[in-house]
Amino acid sequence: MKFKQIWANFAVENIERTEKFYRHLGLERNGSPSESGPEMTSFKFGESDFVIHFFKKDQLEFAMNGKVADSENGNEIIFSISAESEDEVNLWAQKVLEAGGKIHKEAKRQEDGYYYCVFADPDGHKFNVLRVVKGM
């Protein structure tokens, strides 16, 4: 079976805070402002325009017929964002802090030999930004 597109859906507490955070990171909104609203917003990630929808927590729980994962105290998934250089990784870390996110691993060459940082948005959704290494 083949499908056209895949996207992610995350639960958030505050749509306005989420919009402010991802706009500060320079991400492009998916769709027009009229397609977003008090219950959801979405953004495009990367050159392929991978879409992440951010729904108010109660709306996503209703659709899923149950509770969503507690992203503050666990890891549901971690998305990886490629960077062209170590400076770009550092810039991401700086912008995340300015926007109100949290850094879980500082931007540096980590124990595994790669240069990256791990951050969370204001709702605890995890991302890592790593320098693109040939062959990855």
Topology summary:
Layout: E1 7-12, H1 15-24, E2 28-29, E3 40-45, E4 50-56, H2 57-64, E5 78-83, H3 86-99, E6 102-109, E7 115-120, E8 126-131
Parallel strand pairs: 1-4, 5-8
Antiparallel strand pairs: 2-3, 3-4, 6-7, 7-8
Protein name: VOC family protein
InterPro entries: Glyas_Bleomycin-R_OHBP_Dase (IPR029068), Glyas_Fos-R_dOase_dom (IPR004360)
Organism: Chryseobacterium caseinilyticum
Helical run tally: 3
CATH topology of the largest domain: Signal recognition particle alu RNA binding heterodimer, srp9/1
Shape: globular
Q: In order across it, which strands form the biggest sheet?
A: 1-4-3-2
Distance between the termini: 27 Å
How many β-strands, per DSSP?
8
Number of domain modules: 2
Poorly predicted spans: none
What's the main sheet like? 4 strands, mixed
H-E string? EHEEEHEHEEE
CATH class of the largest domain: Alpha Beta
Assigned CATH architecture of the largest domain:
2-Layer Sandwich
Domain Glyoxalase/fosfomycin resistance/dioxygenase: 8-128
Pfam family, one: Glyoxalase
Protein name: VOC family protein
Can you tell me about this structure?
Residues 8-128 form the Glyoxalase/fosfomycin resistance/dioxygenase domain. InterPro entries: Glyas_Bleomycin-R_OHBP_Dase, Glyas_Fos-R_dOase_dom. Pfam families: Glyoxalase (PF00903). This is VOC family protein. It is a single chain. This protein is an alpha/beta fold and 136 residues long. The chain has two domains: 7-64, Signal recognition particle alu RNA binding heterodimer, srp9/1; 78-131, 2,3-Dihydroxybiphenyl 1,2-Dioxygenase, domain 1 (Roll). It is 24% helix and 35% strand. The strands form two sheets. Strands 1-4-3-2 form a four-stranded mixed sheet. The longest helix has 14 residues, at 86-99. It is globular, with a radius of gyration of 15 Å. 21% of the residues are buried. The model has no long low-confidence stretch (mean pLDDT 88).
